[in-house]
From TrEMBL:
A Pfam entry, by short name: PEP_mutase
Lineage top rank: taxon: Eukaryota
Catalytic function, reaction form: (2S,3R)-3-hydroxybutane-1,2,3-tricarboxylate = pyruvate + succinate
Protein name as annotated: Pyruvate/Phosphoenolpyruvate kinase-like domain-containing protein
CDD domains: ICL_PEPM
Species of the source: Aspergillus pseudoustus
Length: 306
C-alpha cells in the first residue's frame, strides 16, 4: 500500500494469521473473553489469540444460561466487537449449531467473516443446545452434522475467506467415544480444518482422539471443574492437542471479584477498590492512548489533557 511514496505493510488477515499460528506453534493458547473489557485485558497481557465463549456471551450480554438463548445476531455482534479491538490478533468464536439448516450455516460464516472472526466452531447438538459440560444433551444424526460443516466450508470458499472451520461434536456423552470419532472424521472429510471433541474425560481419550484424527489439529476445551480434567497447555500439547481454549478464564474470577465488591458495599458502604485503579487507569486499558494519538494526528488537542 503506497502513501506519499512510502509503503506500509498491512498486517495479515486474522484468519491467515491464525493458520500461521497453528502451523508454527507447538500449541495455540486462547483465553476466553466474554466482553470488550476482558478482551482488552487479554490483549494487555500479550496473548496472540483470543476465544469468544458462547457461555460467556449468554451470561454477559443476555444474563441467561447457555441453553440456546443467543441468536446469530447476538453472537455476531459480540464477535465483531471483540475481533476488531485489535484486528491483528485472531479471534476464535463459538457459532453454536450454525443457527439453522445449511443456508443459515452459510449465512453465519458470511457474517462472522465480515465481522473479522478468524475461526469458528460449529457443533452437532440439536438447535435447542446447551453448554457442553451440562447433562441431557442431544445430537443430530451424523449426516445433518456433516451438512452443517459442508455448508460452512462451501460458504468460506465462495467468499474467498481463509477462516478456519472447527468441527465440534458433543456425541461423546450421548453416543460414546467411537461414534464421536466417526463424526469428527466425517467432518474432516467434509473440509473441517480442526476437530473438537467436547467433554474429553481422561488422558486415554485425549491421546486416542488426537492419534485417530492426526494430522488434523485437535482442540481442547479446558473448562475448569467440568467434565474434563484440568490440564496446562504443555500437558495438553504432550497429549497431542494443537489448540487449547479457556472459556471460564475471565468469567470465574470476574464473578468472585465483582460479588465480593458488591457485598462490601452492601455491608460497609465501601468498595475496597485498589487506589491505583483510577478512571484514567480504566480508560488506558481500553484504548485511551490510541484514541489520543488518533486525535493528535488529526490536529486535535483536547485528549492530551485527560
Amino acid at each position: 500500500m503506497a502513501t506519499n511514496g512510502t509503503y506500509t505493510h498491512l498486517p495479515l488477515p486474522a484468519p491467515t494469521r491464525f493458520r500461521q499460528l497453528l502451523a508454527e506453534q507447538d500449541i495455540v493458547v486462547a483465553p476466553g473473553v466474554y466482553d470488550g473489557f476482558s478482551a482488552r485485558i487479554a490483549l494487555e497481557v500479550g496473548f496472540d489469540c483470543l476465544y469468544m465463549t458462547g457461555a460467556g456471551t449468554c451470561a454477559s450480554k443476555l444474563g441467561q444460561p447457555d441453553l440456546g438463548f443467543a441468536s446469530l445476531n447476538d453472537m455476531r455482534e459480540h464477535a465483531e466487537t471483540l475481533a476488531n479491538l485489535d484486528p491483528a490478533i485472531p479471534l476464535i468464536a463459538d457459532a453454536d449449531t450454525g443457527y439453522g439448516g445449511p443456508n443459515m450455516v452459510a449465512r453465519t460464516v458470511q457474517q462472522y467473516h465480515r465481522s473479522g472472526v478468524a475461526a469458528l466452531h460449529v457443533e452437532d447438538q440439536i438447535q435447542t443446545k446447551r453448554c457442553g459440560h451440562l447433562g441431557g444433551k442431544h445430537v443430530v444424526p451424523v449426516d445433518v452434522f456433516v451438512s452443517r460443516i459442508s455448508a460452512a466450508v462451501a460458504a468460506r470458499k465462495k467468499i474467498g475467506s481463509d477462516m478456519v472451520v472447527i468441527a465440534r461434536t458433543d456425541a461423546l456423552q450421548t453416543d460414546g467415544f467411537d461414534d464421536a470419532v466417526v463424526r469428527l472424521k466425517a467432518a474432516v472429510d467434509a473440509g473441517a480444518d480442526v476437530a473438537f471433541l467436547e467433554g474429553v474425560r481422561d488422558e486415554d481419550e485425549a491421546r486416542e482422539v488426537c492419534r485417530l484424527l492426526s494430522p488434523t489439529p485437535v482442540l481442547l476445551n479446558m473448562v475448569e471443574n467440568g467434565a474434563t480434567p484440568s490440564w496446562t497447555p504443555e500437558e495438553a500439547r504432550a497429549l497431542g492437542f494443537k489448540l487449547i481454549i479457556f472459556p471460564f478464564a475471565a468469567l470465574a474470577p470476574a464473578y468472585e471479584a465483582i460479588r465480593s465488591t458488591y457485598a462490601g458495599i452492601k455491608k460497609t458502604g465501601r468498595t475496597g477498590i485498589d487506589p491505583k485503579f483510577t478512571p484514567k487507569k480504566l480508560f488506558t486499558i481500553v484504548g485511551l492512548e490510541e484514541a489520543t494519538s488518533i486525535d493528535e494526528a488529526a490536529g486535535g488537542s483536547l485528549y492530551g489533557k485527560v
